[in-house]
Amino acid sequence: QEQLVESGGGLVQAGDSLRLSCAASLRAFSDYSMGWFRRTPGKEREFVAAISWGGGSTRYADSVKGRFTISRDNAKNTVYLQMNNLKPEDTAVYYCAASVYSLSSYPGGYAYWGQGTQVTVSS
Length: 123
Prior knowledge:
The protein has no helices and eleven strands. It is an all-beta fold. Strands 2, 4, 5, 6, 9, 10 and 11 form a seven-stranded mixed β-sheet that branches. It has a four-stranded antiparallel β-sheet with strand order 1-3-8-7, with no helix packed on it. It starts with a strand and ends with a strand.
């Protein structure tokens, strides 16, 4: 059964760092482009970052460019989101997702989703 499980969220102060992990149970993890999205109450899911099948290409939302880094370890079936210099506006539930389309920023392009992990950044 295909499953994505996020971890690593928590409560931090502005300027701190967090690393989110997403462990994937997919039949062929390396066949999927992986993405991170986030959602705050009353808003649509927002694209954060995506990484290609082999990890050679990445894409970021302008709001996180230079602060967040997406990476993957295909041997461990895991994708990561390193978040540095966190800001209160980064507070959200963060979701990882898997897509057959490379580097998509569109939620509809993702076939599998995790349950999300809460990140709260206090000022």
